[in-house]
Amino acid sequence: EVIDKSIPYGCKCDCWSLGVMLYIILTDEHPCSPDAHKLDTAGLFGKILTGRIRSRPLQEADVDDDAAELLFGLLEKNPDARLDAQAALRSPWLCRVQDSRPKLLHSPSSSDPDIKSSHHLSPISQGLIRRLATFRHYSKFERAVLTLVAHRSEDTTVAELRDAFHTLDVSQSGSLSKSEIKEGIFRCGHVVEDAELTEIFSALDADGTGKVHYTEWLAATMQPSALATDKAIKQVYHYLDIDQTGHIAPHELQRVLGCSDSVQSVLKLGDTDGDSLIDESEFRVLMRNLAKRLDQMDLHPRRLGFHLPEANSLNSSLSSMHQL
């Protein structure tokens, strides 16, 4: 309807847009073109008008049959035959969805006198808090790589992190406020000063919205070893190779990092042959070295800003906690 002005524009245009976004989420590809990212606007519009909705990416991504049926209903070119929002909500795929977020039977406040001994109510582990605290010390490139890996993480590999996020999200807004994160840290038996909390929160809030979204949370809390997997290395490498030339050039790093100093730092670490490019083998070494370095930071954080209990001593009082 946006492209062909002869077709009336209505609410079902938004249903098409939802279909496009859902298709990309499920397949990581555009429904109308395998090379949509290379096309100019006119070229992509042509593909949308004349091409068919691609079924192969759905098959390759093993998309559920009911999800595929919903997609084809939303991506029907004829607005009269296209699903409207109410019909989409009644689709079998969405009807099967249940709210799987863990529910707290009791959500104590930081004023609860028993909070310091109620570690069993803690939604987050000691290791997760340590990663939250050290995330602010990561470089711009390290944060960017973790965010990319988090964005593509399979749900089963981040189940603990997902559950912690949903438990902390007491407002069920889909994001975490500074107060929700502070409450979670406190319920884990830790005290953090407001200045330190602000520093941690600013590092987590990558897009500056004043909220920590799910991907930002995953990036800060996932195990650094996730960066060293073959799948993660390949995914991040192909993402950074924007021009698909088989290597990562400085201008591509600049587009992602937005900082020439960060670009030079990455090249210094990754460009071992001195050609000002990073090929896939160099990038593989870079990512594995990066994972090792962040693992060491996770084990020996420089300055958390608050006390963490020793292993297996969560029942001890705050006065017996030592600062790492």
UniProtKB/TrEMBL annotation:
InterPro entries: CDPK_Ser/Thr_kinases, EF-hand-dom_pair, EF_Hand_1_Ca_BS, EF_hand_dom, Kinase-like_dom_sf, Prot_kinase_dom. The lineage of its organism: Eukaryota, Sar, Alveolata, Dinophyceae, Suessiales. Pfam families: EF-hand_7, EF-hand_8, Pkinase. GO terms for molecular function: ATP binding; calcium ion binding; protein serine/threonine kinase activity. SMART domains: EFh. Residues 1-94 form the Protein kinase domain. Residues 156-191, 192-227, 258-293 form the EF-hand domain. Belongs to the protein kinase superfamily. Ser/Thr protein kinase family. CDPK subfamily. Keywords: ATP-binding, Calcium, Kinase, Nucleotide-binding, Serine/threonine-protein kinase, Transferase. The keyword Calcium applies. Its cofactor is Mg(2+). It comes from the Eukaryota. This is CPK11 protein. It comes from Symbiodinium necroappetens.
